[in-house]
Specification:
Layout (H helix, E strand, L loop, with lengths): L9 E3 L5 E3 L12 E4 L3 E4 L7 H5 L11 H9 L23
Antiparallel strand pairs: 1-2, 3-4
Length: 98
């Protein structure tokens, strides 16, 4: 289920559909996107984000990067993203000497 997007941030696509302002253009940029793409961005309405944003994760359920996200980043000249790393509480493994 999608969020409750503020209507003033949307634009009509046709009689049955709306989209976020700025996303239905040749050089799309969502009106709710803050920051610089490729550097650091955030969504100004994240809790209210629309269904497409909710259904398109950067990370899949198993923690792998969504390959479609990587493909789209490449189209826009952005570097690939890498899965987040979590620090381990385990000591480093010492190499075995034979």
């Amino acid at each position: 289920m999608g969020g409750c997007v503020p209507v003033e941030l949307t634009e009509r696509v046709n009689d049955r559909m709306v989209c976020m302002q700025g996303t239905n253009s040749k050089t799309p940029r969502c009106v709710a996107l803050c920051g610089e793409v490729g550097v650091a961005v955030s969504c100004s309405i994240y809790p209210q984000r629309p269904t497409p944003c909710r259904e398109f994760p950067a990370l899949l359920d198993d923690g792998r990067i969504n390959p479609e996200c990587q493909r789209i980043r490449a189209i826009y000249g952005l570097p690939p993203i890498h899965p987040p790393t979590t620090p381990s509480n385990e000591p480093p493994i010492e190499p075995q000497v034979a």
